[in-house]
Amino acid sequence: MDFQSIIRESAGQGIVLLKNEKNMLPLGEPDSISVFGRCQVNYYKSGTGSGGSVHVPFSVNLLDGFENLKKEGFKIPALNQELIQVYKNWINEHPFDSGNGEWASEPWCQVEMSLSDELVKAAAAKSKKAIFLIGRTAGEDQDNKAEEGSFYLTKTERENLRKICDSFEEVCVILNVSNIIDTSWLESEEFSGHIRALLYSWQGGMQGGQACADILCGKKSPSGKLSDTIAFKLEDYPSTKNFGSAEDEVYEEDIFVGYRYFTTFAKEKVQFPFGFGLSYTTFTQEVQKYDFDEENLYLEVKVTNSGSRTGAEIVQVYAECPQGKLGKAARVLCDFAKTKELESGKSEIVKISFPVKNLASYDDSGESGNAYSYILEEGIYSLYLGSDALHGEKILSKNGKIADGSEFTVTKTRVLEKLSQCCAPQKEFSRLKAGNQKSDGGFELLSEKVPLSQENLGEKIKANLPKELGHAELVSASNPAKIQFPDVVKNPALIDEFVASLSDKELMTLVRGEGMMSRKVTAGLASAFGGISQSLHDRGIPAVACSDGPSGIRMDNGKEASLVPIGTLLACTWNPALVEDLYEALAKEMISKNIDVLLGPGCNIHRSPLNGRNFEYYSEDPLLSGKMAAAMCKGLARSGGIGTIKHFALNNQESHRRTENSVVSERALREIYLRPFEIAVKEGNARAVMTSYNGVNGHKSASNFDLNTSILRKEWGFTGLVMTDWWAAMNDCEKGGEASGRNMSYMIRARNDIYMVVVNDTAESGGFGDNLPEALKNGSLMRSELQVCVKDILLFITETYAAHVPLRPLKSEITISTVLDSVPAGVKIYAPEEYATDSALSGDMYFDVPETASYEVFGGFIKDGGDTLSQSISNVLINGESVGSFECRSTNGVTMYSVAVQLVLKKGVYKINLEHTKPGILVQCLCLRRERLSPISSGEYE
Ligand code: BGC
């Protein structure tokens, strides 16, 4: 399949049909439909922010999707063209509102056309069925809100829906959204029982509208299942009452996230359970074999398509574990598998095997007698074959004998992994615990005090201090030729010698990535790192290119790339193999653009439906999330790309994401929030990790020793690269406390290898004045610690595409060979080194180049307002050709200077102008200057 076909296929497989009364869907040729809602034209393809900002060459909306199907010879229903025209006209007058173009300024919901009774009645006279689209987006830096237009319907949407239901008996509602929204209105009397069908089409990337049309018209049967629980009310989610704080965010619900909570304590609050989704056909599932040994459980399930249409089904296996001393969730997903497309009457035997660890619990208190261990508490472990987390048949068989009653039984509590206490809370709080089982099958809701940290972190860190690899001077004296980086690529055993030969300055340069939009790699990306200074480049280290992620390549200079469906939709496919193929194709596109690393997958858990970035992540369930993330990493690797699992850990809210401190038990941390990362590392061979902005029990992730060293590297055996999130802040590894981006020594001590990002071209001259030189000097950071991180970075680079192609030039100079034929009369013509300022900057500026040579477009700019992370871009055009960009986030009133582009210009006159792709940058001066060799001076970011 080509890339577009895989995008279309995966976008379709993730659509979830939640209701289809009297088989309203699929729509056939004899049907006539009226489509309501502006998203039929303005179909959302992704969320906003770094995770969705891919400039696509095209995207297919729902109407195009219908048309394409027709062209493909597929029978589609008759569309009410008059109504389509009414919407198109209205949209012309009410264009899509992308905000003021500033970072995170796009509203989460667009204005809708208010429907008149006449319009709806006229539509009902033409067509029998109605489709009503509801759209929402969300993204970085802002959460969803418990407000109309965000989690709730707007008045206009509700009123429109009521009018449609008054006139049409068969109404299908499509949710073209990035996050779960309120659907408690579904059965409300005001809609007269006329909402016959409901589907989440999510945001399917550039083929989203196509995939939605495919499902509506029955080209494909829906096979998506929810990756989250939909509760009747927002307040029903146990995280809601604590969600979104600026400081301590208490994870009181503990392991009871999503269906773990609802199946244990509140089944009645579930509108649509985790794992639920309908098809146009029906299936039977029959367990043919159930077996287990010490390490694994095995199942063979015969899935038969018992309906009349082709479709695919998902086998979901849940466990009910003994409550034991620790207390458990009533259901835990322990494995799943999707069949291939089965024709009516056809069967497939699905073989499943999973490790007993998927049933284990982590004892963070010692209550079971096995403190800080993954254990299987004694008792009976029942498996359920579920159509979702709430409904399932108990599997009672062993050794192929069906229903003999022998279940997986642990006679004496078993320790699967003995670990040590890590990242435990220092603040007292209470968490939920399951008590006795009630007559209705649910459990009493109890609470207990969370075990606190007993660690001596200082001692732990001290015991980990590495030995120095040798002094640069000594090595270079004994080996004056110095080995080059390509030698290390060929023979990684040379790494110690290579690292020992690097000077302090080189070591410090290597732990600073630069960006955004470094000129040393493909234009428009989030960062470059590695050989970004002349001296490192001279040693043969390439500059590595990193791009956002996760849904496609984000090039902020406006260059185009493909956009795949959002993470939540992909999780709803329950098809890791398909996700692997999708990302294999995406990596081909990366490699074709010389991009080595993708900043995704996002592995954070859907703790609350309000998290603005849920769309980038997968699910409320750690196993499903982990399998998806692993698939993405494996897929990327198949084509030579590398994924970055982010945000490690607990980036579960966007509001206050830089200041928030997650207060969470060690058990919930390990069983729920870290588990997807663990699976991605162990099963997906993830090679790069991005830490999060927030704190975890008082320690910022980027300087969290337990997270980055004790757990990630020592327990999980991770050998790759750890980077910070962009402009992160670190605090004291041992004592916590105040955080700052300058505290890079703490980052290194925790073995978060690299800081993302310093201003372009300043990595060698000290970034924005971090504390590395001082810490090395006063001994609070050992040189050996820096060497260890540099070793991680360089070994990682040996695995990148960049290391296996000829060394990229450090300066990618652009040669402009056109000169202007004529220059308008009377305009000012600037000489090199002469600054254009004030109003000249908003128009065409002319520069006279006296001799053919290498030049830089250099400027000073300021960007006020906005979050310090909000980014803006001004592209530089020379003779109409876009050649480079100024990129900055808020400068807090300080003028920043930077080089937008280096060029070789022939003698002649050139026209330069600026194109602001996003507002907010106030360019204050600009000149064309002969290239400087020394690093540019720069203002400072806080
Ligand atoms: C986001 C990351 C992203 C990075 C680079 C940060 O603000 O949190 O997910 O990869 O920016 O764009």
Provide an overview of this structure:
- 22% of the residues lie in helices and 26% in strands.
- A six-stranded mixed beta sheet has the order 1-6-5-4-2-3. A six-stranded mixed beta sheet has the order 26-27-28-29-31-34.
- The model is unreliable at 933-942 (pLDDT under 50).
- The protein has four domains: 3-228, 3-Layer(aba) Sandwich (Rossmann fold); 283-419, Sandwich (Immunoglobulin-like), CATH 2.60.40.10; 459-555 and 593-804, Glycoside hydrolase, family 3, N-terminal domain (TIM Barrel, Alpha-Beta Barrel), CATH 3.20.20.300; 814-930, Galactose-binding domain-like (Jelly Rolls), CATH 2.60.120.260.
- Strand 43 (871-878) and strand 44 form a beta hairpin.
- It is globular, with a radius of gyration of 29 Å.
- The longest helix has 17 residues, at 576-592.
- It contains 22 helices and 47 strands.
- The two termini are 48 Å apart.
- Helix 1 (3-13) crosses helix 14 (567-573), helix 2 (62-71) crosses helix 6 and helix 12 packs across helix 22 (783-799).
- It is α/β, with parallel strands linked by helices and 942 residues long.
- The structure holds beta-D-glucopyranose.
- The site of beta-D-glucopyranose has 10 residues, from loops.
List the defining traits of the structure above.
942 residues; alpha/beta; Rossmann fold; Immunoglobulin-like; TIM Barrel; six-stranded mixed beta sheet; 47 strands; 26% strand; globular; binds beta-D-glucopyranose
